[in-house]
Fold this protein.
Amino acid sequence: MHNALLEGKAIGANTVQFFTANQRTWHTKPLSDEAVLLWEKARDETGIEVVMSHDSYLINLGSPDKEILAKSRKAFRLELERCLLLGVTYLNFHPGAYTTGTLEEGLDTIIESLLEIAPLANTGKTRLLLETTAGQGSCMGSKFEEIAYLIQKTHKILPIGVCIDTCHIFAAGYDIRTKEGFNKTIEEFDEKIGLSNLYAFHVNDSLKPLGSRADRHASLGKGLIGLPCFEALMQHEKLSHMPKYLETPDHTIWSEEIALLSKFREVISK
Ligand SMILES: [Zn+2]
């Protein structure tokens, strides 16, 4: 884990997203004291304070299947415990999928899952962030209305918020290809969810078209969203302080992508 901080620093990042465990298995080992010490040392060395953890892809907090739901809640609790131990700023998670159930039942199951973990979440400084999704299959959270419902029912009870993934909202049907389109989408977010509930961005271009509901990330400017969106994001005065995470597929050009985003930012700071 501590390597995420060191590698981030080396490519010019001032924040990193990482996994606290293997994201594709249910079995996780508790963090060793050594891993925690190395983490704290790297954090001091790099000065990177704001960090995001991404939960396991297997976790489904909205599942109608009792067994999967129980496993998911347990894994999510362990993930949050690791985040609290490491002092992670944001725990990013996908809301969940309703599979054989209904959307309404799925959303209410997610709320139940979150309320159950509230006592633990209130013991530390880690904020849980619902990630907007592309809406693949029965995945919830692709419409701002769905996220708004989850936030309304939980935000007074535990530290929670939202992370917008640009690829996902585009695939979900929000047209952010132009500066106007991006700014209008942020306004819509503000009306429906409230910008005070927005904490971070996943900055990705999309291989799949608008409204395709398919989650396939592309490098910035090499997908169907295009650079104007990312320029608008970096220059939006209400979003400038929020951490932004690349999840683009070609890690060999991450340093260039960071430099590009920083260049967009310079225009307003001049
Ligand atoms: Zn994402």
